[in-house]
Amino acid sequence: MNKLGIYIHIPFCNAKCSYCDFVSSVCGDDVKAAYFSRLRSDILEFASSGKAQDKTVDSIYFGGGTPTSVAEKYIAQIMDLLRSGFNVASDCETTIEANPESLTSIKAECYASSGINRISIGLQSATDSLLSEIGRIHTVYDFIKAADIAQSRFNNVSADLMLALPGQTVRDVEKAINLLAGRQFNHISAYSLKVEEGTPLFSTGYQPDEDYAADLYSLTRSMLEQYGYKGYEVSNFALPGYECRHNMRYWMRGEYLGFGVAAHSFYDNERYCMTSDLKAYLSGEGITEKTFIQPDGEEAAEETAMLALRTSYGLDLEKYRQTFGRDLLKDRGELIEELTESGYVEINNGKLTLTDKGLYVMNEIIVRLVL
To answer: Which residues contact 73 (CB under 8 A, 6 or more apart)?
Structure first.
């Protein structure tokens, strides 16, 4: 049977971080109740249509926002609905994102009993003053308490940190990595800050220094590799066997359904997304954009290459040629030779991958190779 992923968007937070441009907000219990009512209705409608009856769901992901900011009963209800409406694999990787201040023992117990088996906690920084400056409402101690709860109930625990935050030092990054790797978190994501227009941080005029951000990223990769983590995607590192199945689905162009406001889907060769307006969503508005992607067409070819080159698995050149009729060794042979000699890319067993050096200029390389 074909594999399928499901993403559930929870657009609520206890506070809005200064760098965040995700569709999320601080709302009251009445709005949350109305949201989950609509969310359950959407899931039930799709499940009842029978469109996914030949699919096996092997990854579920609750993201946001902050899923742990809502009552745990809502998460359990969604899990019950997914299991009753879809063919959920017995080994389905089921993840919930958490913030330290809103993860409790009671919630963790409820998540585990409802079938969630992976939890991802947002640390972002190991310095309290920096956390406060970017609008985080937890401390490092809060994170440690949340980590104790998570690691006592889940065998698969992930954590996030951010690089190039305002005033962030090398020491802060070292502290964060030593904290996470020292506790043997199975998976660590390290995202370089991108200041988006419209966020409070953007209004301050702050922009990360690109060279300094690259230095912090290099430090992060080096330290995590020393701890035994493999960088399997540009921002994601895992101990052996703990790569995130759901995220790999995105990078390998696997099918997934997104439920909730602003949720995106890639299903039956179509990409579509729900309205990003919470009020409109609660009023009944649904899909606002839908695009058919020709399976062997130019857009699919570009997506496949761009996403594959973000990962350590790379782009299978022969499979790419057979699927899309594009022979990169022939069409971009001189460029590939130049990039190889310069140490930016390499080819092993027929797969084109970026080197550590190439990751720093990934976007430029991808544009030159693919577009």
So the answer is: 110
Q: Count the alpha carbons within 13 Å of 163 in the hemisphere toward its beta carbon.
A: 24
Per-residue pLDDT tens over the stretch 203-246:
999 999 999 999 999 999 999 999 999 999 999 999 999 999 99
Q: Please give the Cα distance from 291 to 247 (Å, whole number).
A: 21
φ/ψ of 198, rounded to 5, equals 100, -10
CA end-to-end span of the chain:
34
* Beta carbons within 10 angstroms of residue 334's beta carbon: 8
What backbone phi and psi angles, to 5 degrees, belong to 203? -65, -20
230: three-class secondary structure by DSSP: strand
Q: How far apart are CA 125 and CA 136, in angstroms?
A: 10
Handedness of CA 346, 348, 353, 357 (dihedral sign): negative
Residue count of the chain: 371
State both tokens at 215. 């230095």
pTM reported for the whole predicted model: 0.96
Helix H, strand E, coil C: the string for 252-316 is: CCCCEEEECCCCEEEECCEEEEECCCHHHHHCCCCEEEEEECCCCCHHHHHHHHHHHCCECCCEE
CA separation for the pair 174, 195 (Å, rounded): 23
Domain 298-370 has CATH 3.55.40.10: no
Q: In this predicted structure, what is the pLDDT of residue 371?
A: 78
The domain defined by 2-251 carries CATH number 3.20.20.70: yes
pLDDT digits (tens, 9 = 90+) for 259-290: 999 999 999 999 999 999 999 999 999 999 99
Closest CA to 122 of 24, 69, 189, 184: 189
Cα 217 from Cα 173, distance rounded (Å)? 9
Please state the domain extents for the chain.
2-251, 298-370
Share of the chain above pLDDT 90, in %: 96
